[in-house]
Amino acid sequence: MTEQTKTRFPAPLYAAAGAGDMAVEQLRKLPAVLTEISERAAANFRTYNEQAGTKAAELRDKASTTDFEALRGNAASVATSFAQIAQDRAVAAYTALVARGERVVGTGVVEAADVVNADLATTEEPAAIEAAEKAQPTPKPRKRAATK
């Protein structure tokens, strides 16, 4: 039998495989989630409709007393910190997808390697094939008739 070598695919391939696996998992949950959301929406519709008028009046009063200059001053520092947090979360999510993809791709590679190794074990050795080819005489080249 041949010795199996460890093949490493690029991380984006593993991330794509992990994302696909995660998508399949989430899509399987979709019918139950849709049923739950529609039931909650029907139950809460009247409550939200009544609260909307009150909330709109509160927001109008708050907007008239808000200091927008102070908000603008804080916006840059808050945006920078949110961008850093988003970047950290994106790196963590990408790393998780790569790890998940390695598991998905790895199981397929191991299963395929087992099939190939089993096939190799049941077929004849390459040395026997090469010996049979060498035992056959090679045909001599034909001489061409002279043309005038």
Features:
148 residues, mainly alpha, elongated
Task: Write up what this structure looks like.
With 148 residues, the protein is mostly helical. The protein has a domain at 11-109. It contains 3 helices and no strands. It has helices spanning 11-65, 68-122, 126-135. It is elongated.
Number of helices: 3
Q: Evaluate the radius of gyration.
A: 34 Å
Query: What kind of sheet is the major sheet?
Result: none
- The dominant shape is elongated
- Mean pLDDT metric: 78
Tell me the strand percentage band. Answer: under 5%
Short account of what is shown:
The protein is built from 3 helices and no strands.
Topology:
Layout: H1 11-65, H2 68-122, H3 126-135
Helix pairs in contact: 1-2
